[in-house]
Design a protein that fits this description.
The complex is a heterodimer. Helix content of chain A is 47%, strand content 21%. Chain A is an alpha+beta fold. Chain A has 2 domains: 117 residues, no CATH class; 84 residues, Sandwich (Immunoglobulin-like), CATH 2.60.40.10. In chain A, strand 3 and strand 4 form a beta hairpin. In chain A, helix 1 runs antiparallel to helix 2, helix 2 packs across helix 4 and helix 3 packs across helix 4. Chain B is elongated and about 85 Å long. Chain B folds into 2 domains: 273 residues, no CATH class; 136 residues, 3-Layer(aba) Sandwich (Rossmann fold). In chain B, helix 2 packs antiparallel against helix 7 and helix 4 packs across helix 5. By secondary structure, chain B is mainly alpha-helical. Chain B contains 15 helices and 5 strands. The chains are: A alpha+beta, B mainly alpha. At the A-B interface, helix 2, helix 3, helix 4, helix 5 and strand 1 of A face helix 1, helix 3, helix 5, helix 6 and helix 8 of B. Strand 1 of chain A pairs antiparallel with strand 4 of chain B, so a sheet runs across the interface.
Chain lengths: 252, 441
């Protein structure tokens, strides 16, 4: 395969590498790069096949980009109609399949002289200092996005604690009692479970930020369950409370 | 570069002293300044006039050099025009990204995020979307996003940003080509795109993660294909283009160039100012609304600023604990989060549940008619007026509120027989109405 088929070889290699990387559990960065290249490959090849050398410059780029976006849309519908789940294997198969099919057709057309050989001729040359300025622009814009992300991370958010007492989907006679700490740091609680107003159980919990504590508690309609959560050291006022209803709860 | 249309028409004019690479640098600096304004808003200065001015300074850094280059009398090569249009589009898109750089927060984007997430999780198309039922039946954007996320391992959010950005840029490219073919001038095409940028949708709904962002370039490509394949003189649905073409003769660049050459530079400056006024007007009237120009702390019934960690946590909990598709009453600010992250079937006309001090049989009748199973109460409705003017999606009192809702109206569910208080995160409480007085129990 000579230079005239370099793009055919490159796109076929991308398809093979992407499939191999996915099968071998390659690092995320490699999958990202290969995935984007594989995503673009069908558009490039279909563009070569459909419009070939009849278009140049921007028009060729927009046609190829449009085709690259159209392949997953139409291909996804076909996969769905064929009963193939739209997960990684299905998408990889679709994009790699279209890429390799396009490679074969383009290769044959070129061999038969019915398609122009591959050539790389930049439309215009950019002086070195202009290129440096464009690179700096990309860097500055990336810094802008990075700054915005830092802003999100640093934005003051009031911490919160979730308490729940809810039916479990698996069992009608069991409730899920849980506490989740998002206060921004380790927090100590006392959780008191009341049955018809009488203390049924007590737990002292210390949860790191982002951690959850959960229990299943039996329940029937014959009594009311209330759970009062205290944030230590304050044991006088419930910090959160939940109840199965029917009686006035503690924190109201 | 453009067969059959001749080369650039203004190459005889003097070269500009403002290279497009410098324009790109200025636009990038504008993105950075706008991002700094957004960060200032997040760190507690959302209401500060200096932060607001910083945002507009960033916009001027983006827009002014582009407008000046496109409208100047100096020579402008086709490649330079394309670069200017790309710089403008990408810079404005990045400003939009900087507003919500970690997750989708626009309500419309959250709706489509739900559909894309459903496709990724189930591997199937046409699954129900309670927040925007029609969305799964037009799944193109979500298919592409799901495919990209699947094969790259990127999140739906990041993949969605890439797809929406690429689609927006593609649409701009197609529009440029169409204007170029119709007018015969790349500069007129560039100016036309500058005018498109003055449309309030340019930086918002035409570049958001919503289905029209991908539909528009395919519409443009279809028109372009017909124009190119069926010949410009073809009749049919490109009659509109033909109309533009008929008027084209009075717009052709050589005429404009000749006119401009006779005019003083002040006329060009006036044209630049006019273009900037138009674009800034589009930004003022676009999205996000002026009362959330900068991101910042939580606002009741706002847009982006009603999406916070506790809203997302409660919605995630609802999905995990209750399953999807439950009929939920909620307020304007919590609805998009509960419907997307929580995948719940939210009710729009539910203000009556939050604006009465006690249980009423009439409310019970309406609850039953709307099959409401759960009520999400955000007690901050009793602390702030609604930023959008309405507390509820369907709100007969929109714009009429003079004080926040009484707390007693929100906490009355604690005392209604049979109502279970199943979730409490401080500001947000979820009640289960099933088996309560609302259902005659």
């Amino acid at each position: 395969m000579g230079r005239s088929q370099a793009d055919v070889g490159a796109t076929a290699l991308v398809a093979a590498l992407a499939c191999g990387a996915a099968a071998s559990g390659a690092p995320a960065a490699a999958m990202t790069v290969l995935g984007i290249m594989l995503f673009s490959a069908p558009g490039y090849l279909l563009g070569q096949l459909l419009v070939g050398s009849r278009t140049t410059g921007l028009e060729r780029v927009v046609v190829m980009a449009g085709l690259a976006l159209a392949v997953p849309i139409l291909g996804g519908l076909l996969l769905y109609a064929a009963g193939v789940p739209l997960h990684r294997p299905g998408w990889l198969g679709l994009l790699a399949g279209v890429t390799l099919a396009g490679d074969i057709v383009l290769f044959r057309r070129r061999r038969a002289g019915r398609a122009a050989p591959f050539s790389w001729q930049p439309a215009w040359r950019v002086p070195r200092w202009h290129a440096a300025a464009f690179a700096a622009a990309v860097l500055i814009a990336a810094c802008g996005v990075g700054l915005a992300r830092v802003g999100v991370a640093k934005q003051p958010q009031p911490g919160f604690t979730q308490l729940w007492l809810s039916p479990q989907q698996q069992s009608a006679h069991t409730l899920s009692l849980g506490v989740s700490n998002d206060q921004g740091g380790t927090t100590s609680y006392r959780l008191v479970l009341l049955r018809n107003g009488q203390v049924s159980a007590t737990w002292d919990l210390t949860l790191a930020n982002g951690r959850t504590w959960q229990r299943s508690v039996p329940f029937t309609d014959k009594y009311t369950l209330t759970a009062n959560l205290y944030r230590l050291p304050d044991l006088a006022h419930p910090y959160r409370y939940v109840s199965t209803g029917s009686s006035k709860a503690a924190g109201s | 570069m453009y067969p059959g249309r001749g080369g650039p028409a203004d190459t005889s004019a003097a070269r500009s002293r403002l290279p497009v690479s410098v324009v790109a640098l200025s636009a990038a600096a504008g993105v950075l300044v706008a991002a700094a304004a957004y960060t200032a808003g997040r760190l507690g200065h959302a209401g500060a006039s200096w932060a607001d001015r910083m945002y507009w300074l960033g916009q001027l850094l983006i827009l002014t050099p582009v407008a000046a280059r496109l409208l100047s009398r100096r020579a402008l090569a086709a490649s330079e025009t394309v670069t200017l249009v790309v710089v403008l589009t990408v810079a404005e898109y990045l400003v939009k990204v900087c507003y919500s750089p970690a997750a989708f927060t626009y309500a419309d984007e959250l709706m489509h995020w739900r559909t894309a997430t459903d496709i990724s999780q189930t591997g199937r198309l046409f699954t129900a979307n309670n927040l925007l039922p029609i969305s799964p039946y037009y799944p193109g954007l979500e298919e592409v996003t799901s495919a990209l996320a699947s094969i790259t391992g990127l999140s739906i959010f990041t993949s969605g940003l890439i797809v929406a950005g690429a689609a927006h840029l593609l649409f701009v490219g197609v529009l440029f080509l169409l204007f170029r073919y119709v007018s015969g001038s790349h500069r007129i095409a560039g100016v036309a795109l500058l005018l498109y940028a003055s449309e309030s949708l340019f930086q918002s709904f035409d570049s958001m993660f919503v289905y029209q962002t991908l539909a528009l370039p395919f519409l443009g490509l279809t028109v372009l294909a017909v124009y190119r394949l069926a010949a410009p003189q073809a009749a049919g649905f490109i009659a509109a283009l033909a109309v533009i073409r008929l008027t084209d003769n009075s717009l052709r660049w050589p005429v404009i160039r000749a006119d401009l050459r006779r005019r003083a530079p002040v006329v060009v400056a006036a044209a630049v100012v006019a273009a900037l006024v138009l674009i800034l007007n589009g930004l003022v009237n676009g999205w996000p609304p002026f009362w959330e120009r900068l991101p910042g702390p939580y606002q009741v019934a706002g847009a982006e600023r009603s999406v916070g960690p506790d809203q997302v946590a409660s919605a995630d909990w609802a999905l995990a604990a209750l399953g999807p598709g439950n009929r939920f009453a909620t307020d304007e600010g919590d609805l998009p989060v509960l419907g997307s992250y929580g995948d719940q079937n939210t009710v729009g006309d539910d203000g009556y549940l939050y604006t009465s001090p006690a249980f009423t049989p009439a409310a019970a009748q309406q609850v039953q008619a709307e099959s409401i199973g759960y009520v999400l109460v955000d007690r901050r409705l009793s602390e702030m007026l609604p930023a959008s003017g309405q507390y509820f999606p369907v709100d007969p009192n929109v714009g009429k509120y003079t004080r926040p809702l009484p707390l007693a109206d929100l906490t009355k569910f604690n005392h209604v027989p049979g109502v279970a208080r199943i979730y409490d995160s401080g500001n947000i409480v979820i009640y289960d109405l099933k088996g309560s007085a609302y259902y005659g129990s």
